[in-house]
Amino acid sequence: MNALILAIAAVGFAFDTYELLMLPLVAPFALPEMGFPPGSPGYQGWISLMFWVPAIAGGVFGLLGGYLTDLYGRRRVLTWSILLYAGATAAGSVATGPHALLLCRTFTFVGVCVEFVAAVAWLAELYPDPAQREAALGYTQAAGSLGGLMVSYAFGWFAAHGEALPAMMGGHAAWRYTMLSGLIPALPLLLVRPLLPESPAWQEKRAAGTLARPSVGELFAPALRRTTLITTLMVAASYAVAFGAIQQLPGIVRAMPGVVPKDAGRLAAGVQQSQEWGGLLGRCLLALLATKIASRRTLLRAFQLPGLIVVPLVFWLGAKDLDTLRTGAFLAGLFTVGQFSFWGNYLPRVFPLHLRGTGEGFAANIGGRMIGTAAFGVTTLLAGADKTSLAPMAALVAAVALVVGFAASFAMPEPEA
To answer: Domain 2-411 belongs to what architecture?
Structure first.
């Protein structure tokens, strides 16, 4: 049963990332097909909306999902959230206009935001032993980077071999095949869902009638106010680096000298793959160090301090040469994506059981998904129609976010031993 639990959790985390990181790869190709070529006002407006609107919806409904996780159980919410994002992503593959694509992406984002909160709370409570819990959370979250690798390889394969596949909507667009592949995680889940256990700690308290009702307001009571505000700010800073800089890589590749449109998809996928390999190493290092380093501040700073130097330099200098950008993307992924696993390990330890989903939902979704992902729009807005300014603006946004996150770490609460 332990192997099944870990496998389902890993699949969930992998396809969380698969579905989210699909958009930076497909949007630059879907929008021109819908009549909005790169550099046009319509393109800039729609690509910002594609990241901003789903993020706002994900933040609001992700918080609601955390509340429902505390109210109705971890397993039930986990299952329905995966089915939601898988179905919504697949539906986006037949979109013929930006409005339909935006709607599908919004439902996808909502499902991913809810799934992360439910899965983290579920795993944390299935493994009460501290060492087992840290390892289970750390290594299953490492599958998130596998999801990024899978979607980048999938997009690259569809870009190279799509002509051999059955036509979709009258063509062989790689972005459509990639979105249709988002249906994959729903298939094994439908088979094994009856075998998955509920959180024993949550179920025991509910059966005994001692489970307190969750409340968003309680997050801002004196006992939890500092924890709520600091974690929300720091998760937002982590996501701002990822979306304000790293998720700009496909657009940066398209704007590089010598890159022709027919090769842009393949080259963008290659750079994305390099970044995801770095992210996978970062997540694995976090999982290893989480059981060795007692102080959570020290653990986080092992990724923050190198990132403060490396990430802005990658985007400031790397956009001039494709090989340099690949190497820089690997390092940026290592120091940035490793922090995402940190929050999955840290947040369950600083909120009480009856508020675990609600507290995680607020920090991860209001902070990370809503505020942090808005950095994508900030970068594109600062860059404007000048494609060559995208990389330096990404460097600027990343630098600001990294400084904010590091400064806030001095006020980060240490969980009880």
So the answer is: Up-down Bundle (1.20)
